[in-house]
Amino acid sequence: MLSGSITSAARRGKQCGWSIAWPPGGSGPAERAELPVVVVLHGRGNDHASAFSRRYLALDRFLASVVAGGTAPFALASIDGGETYWHARDDGEDAGAMVVDEFLPLLAGHGLRTDRIGFLGWSMGGFGALHLARTLGPERVAAVGAMSPALWHHFKDTAPGAYDDAEDFADVDLMGRQDDLAGIAVRIDCGRGDPFLAASRDFVHGFEARPAGGFQRGDHDRGYWRRMAPAQLTFLGSALEAPANVSA
After folding, report:
1. Phi and psi (nearest 5°) for 46?
2. Which residues contact residue 225 at a Cβ distance below 8 angstroms, ignoring those fewer than 6 apart?
């Protein structure tokens, strides 16, 4: 694990912590060089450390387990995105641009492959992962995994502060835009007791080919996300290992 911070221009000068977790098997630069990376986007009320905290998701431990079980090795990396739902806002803050324009170059500077990446997120970060995957497209994104993505049908139903206004919501709404994820491996999981279940089901049903994942017993909480983590990481690792296919 390596951690640090940056002053993000895209987030209007905010100090943003970040962490990178490599799987076991080599601690030197040579062993870690050229590994693919999955960028992990946190939920509302969380920060980059939530992905790796032993009291929260502990994704680095799940990464070690799936790699030991035969999944091709890759790294996980997370950064503080605030609570602006990972997209450009009227006040000039843009956590999504921070990921693309500031965090990915930082990861490349640590020897990770950033030409073809994966995204993983939960809740607000699940929306963010799908949004950024759609924005970058299959030329850059191999796979995206979303756990309990924060999706709504209408602006009036959204959480306070998630969007600037109805126009902002319409600009980045994912419903009806599933074709924008064509060529990207997609996995979506949502608990049957989750408030986002109905919207998540409708989003999944809008794909021409049903994404991986499903709707399992569980709520909108870390217990459910930890149960889904091994399957999500295995899915992402397999997709990163597969040859690129942007014609789908």
Report:
1. -110, 180
2. 57, 122, 147, 148
Residue 93 lies in a domain: yes
Report the relative pairing of strands 14-21 and 75-79 from DSSP bridges.
Answer: antiparallel
Is the pTM higher than 0.85? Answer: yes
pLDDT in tens, 43-59: 999 999 999 999 999 99
Radius of gyration (C-alpha) of the chain in whole angstroms: 17
Q: Which residue has the higher pLDDT, 198 or 30?
A: 198
CB 91 within 8 A of CB 84: no
| Range of the structural domain that residue 103 is part of | 2-241
Q: How many domains does the chain have?
A: 1
Classify residue 59: in a domain, yes or no: yes
